[in-house]
Amino acid sequence: MSWLPLSFGFPAVLWGLLALPVIWWLLRLTPPKPQAEIFPPLKILARVFKKEETPHQSPWWLTLLRLLMAGLVVLALAEPVFNPREKLPTGGAALALVVDNGWASAPDWKRRVATAERLIADAGASGQPVVLAFTAEKPNAEIGPFDAQAALDRLRAAEPRPVPTDRGPVYARVATVLATLPGTSIAILDDGLAGAGDEQAFSTLLGQNPANVLWASPERLDAKGLTSAENEMDGFALTAIRAPGDPAPGAVTAGAFDDKGRRIADATLAFAPGETVASGTMTVPFELRNDFASIALDGQGQAGAVRVLDDSSKRRRVGLLSQSDADDSQPLLAPLYYIRRALEPFADLSEPTSSDLAEAIPQMLEQKPAMIVMADVGTIPPQAREKLLTWLKEGGTLVRFAGSRLAAAGNDEELLPVRLRLGERSLGGALSWTAPQPVSDFPNAGPFADLSPPNEVTVSKQVLAEPTPDLAASTWANLADGTPLVTGARRGKGTLVLFHIAPQATWSNLPISGSFVEMLRRIVQLSRNQGTATTGIEGKPASLAPYRMISADGRIVPPTPDARPLLAGAGALPVTLENPPGLYGSEEGVLAHNLLKTDSTLSPLVRPQLSAPVTEIRYAFDESRDLKGSLVAAALALMALDTLAVLWMGGTFSRRGARRGRTAGTAAAVLLCLGALMAQPDLAHADDAKPGDVEAVEAISKTRVAYVLTGESAVDAISRAGIAGLTKFLIEKTALEPGEPAGVDIAKDELAFYPLIYWPIDPAAAMPSEAAIARVDAYMKQGGTVLFDTRDQFANGIGADAASPATERLRDILSSLNVPPLEPVPADHVLTKAFFILPEFPGRFNGSPLWVEASLEASNAEGRPVRTGDGVTPIMITANDFAGAWAIDENDDPMLPTVPSDPMQRVYALRAGVNIMMYMLTGNYKSDQVHVPVLLERLGQ
After folding, report:
1. 59 lies in some domain
2. The Aerotolerance regulator N-terminal domain covers which part of the protein (predicted)?
3. H/E element holding 20?
4. Most CB contacts within 10 A, which of 264, 512, 516, 523?
5. What CATH number is given to the structural domain containing 357?
6. Which residues contact 907 (CB under 8 A, 6 or more apart)?
7. What is the rounded distance in angstroms from the CA atom of residue 254 to the CA atom of residue 237?
8. What is the rounded average pLDDT for all residues in the chain?
9. What is the pLDDT of residues 617-657, one digit of tens each?
10. Does a structural domain hold residue 89?
11. Residue whose C-alpha is closest to residue 290's, from 313, 264, 262, 318
């Protein structure tokens, strides 16, 4: 019967089923049912002399019920297991387990961990040491060998990383360890993706003559990645990739998100049959595209499907101005023709309707452009000049091109980066001794530093700058003779740029070269944040701190402790544990560092040819199920039915009083039988003590105030010190002597022991699981009270329109709780007079109200001077940081100052804590006190 998915831990116990016929014979007879007779004595005596009655046969259904109950007990003692898993062949001297934990392993990481746990459990059962290594960890990570329990602990602590795997160095380290453990079994749990140097890596690892090889690979390679997201003229152009080998067509949806994580646009990318690349365009308005912070593929759950966007992905609005009217018959001679052609691919262009600068410049500034380009504009009218200068100093970028008008206009020191000589300089003309000048190498301090100089470009006419000591610092591009081609300078927060040539191809062939397009693109990128995110000092790469990271499962998260600054401008940087994918910089400007590059591909891993025997295993959870508990529960249910049947047959339900003693005896017999059936020969189970009994007795021996362990050491330390300070104050001022503060894990610890739980909300702490929140909800329903403290009174405070991160986290937690209607503590609430008379409830901060459950009788003030019911509110919320005000150090001195610094505010905060504790422990006793005179008056009547 190998097809039956059932096994037994102690199959010898099944011989007990042979006793069922004996049990049937013992159970088939029952004594006759006693009958009650109404006294006359003679009638009873007359019936005594009737013929002797034989025992009455037990009903068939009761016998069957008891046989089934006995059979279930025998089966339970045999410890049956449904769908038992097959033990994997982990023979040999040790087990070497190498696990891919790169970005591609994130979607099914739990399944991989479950598979590895089975391997380690089998190795531990055989007493084998375990070598455990991950291919996306630091090179110096410990790999063992470990015992089975230590290996399980390290496995459960591991997590997928948002970086590619690096099998070569890891496999080499494992091979070094295996050289000292000959005949080891090797288990490889890969992510299905090929990496650089895989052939050499597998050759190194598997060249140690393993006893056998276990290999687990994904059944299907479903990973899809996003390789590019370019902001183009008509929308965001997206490119997605998938692994080859899938002949069927497919589609994936991409979503665009703003910096707050809100989805604001969608697009569908379709894969043609057999194709590995899909393209699509997210067609949305220009203004909406500039709000994109990240783009992600739906349903992937891994870092390769997410791209973060920086300022280079945001299109700028650029205004174009010229004093020359367009000539449709000769467009190549128009001042703005080449500028327009160069900027169209990466900027949104706008031009005024009027050629009069006095009207055109204000009209252009109303559109709030990031950059304005002036092609041969001479003198600017005064009224427009002031507005243009204000826009420039507030952060705008003004780019000017020379020409005959500018050369004759004279110097305007505020709207020109350098002083100019009057007139033009001609090179290579019939009356000139000089030849047209080529462009030299770009200076290191300018934005064109990493561009190659255009060798084919020459300049035949230019406007010259006056030689000054700071001319070199303002020069972004030079001609071969050292004269400036492009100069730039700062004006307030803005940038001012001058091309010393005309925008047409008459003075130079630069406007018709590819370098012209790239130079304008660089200036457009500077027009937003002036290059603070990527430009270093004196041409050196800028060191950008981690700002927002992409996690392995594709979420945008704060930087991890392992993340290090990124050297922007140092060439193409790989994605590593020190530089994971994400945004680097600050709020003033960021640089996107994405996992997949434009030319990235997803190649499936090809398994090498091996001489050692290979066993293929699959990623799966342990689906075996122990049936012992279910069988015991079924036996208990049948025993309860049997007890009810015996009581019914004995007439207990019709004559309960007469049979009370018999019922007690029957129940005792049933319990005795249950104990006998469930008894096992293992004497270790004779002790009825359970884990946690000692802690439970200790928890209820004294009243203790609890606080939630958030996982943030600083927050938890303040919470414990705060509860300790409140406890000391309670002992000094009241008859209550609470025990030591109790830190509780809401996901594991029993909460019913504590009348009050203080919960400091910290956005950096992990979001509680649904099960943990459900336990808190049950605690509140059973009479407990949770005091939520967001500690953000001076950030936003509860109820603010723009909530702080702590308040947002509190809202997420409360959305899963059954929260009653809330209101600030009214002036006549019991909390205001439970011990001290308090008009408000300050903490380390003051100003936030203390929110409690709203009174249902709040509107009925007449005859009810205290506005509460008899119950105690299950929830309190504040932003005043109670624990921060209560916290004391080992010398009983306050740990944190109050804001504002007022000694009495700390006293009021401690009094507020006393009132809250008295309210928790005594209920609304003062609410009843107000009715005492009325009750006494009625009793007197």
Report:
1. yes
2. 6-80
3. helix 20-27
4. 523
5. 3.40.50.880
6. none
7. 11
8. 79
9. 888 766 666 677 777 788 788 788 877 877 777 666 655 44
10. no
11. 313
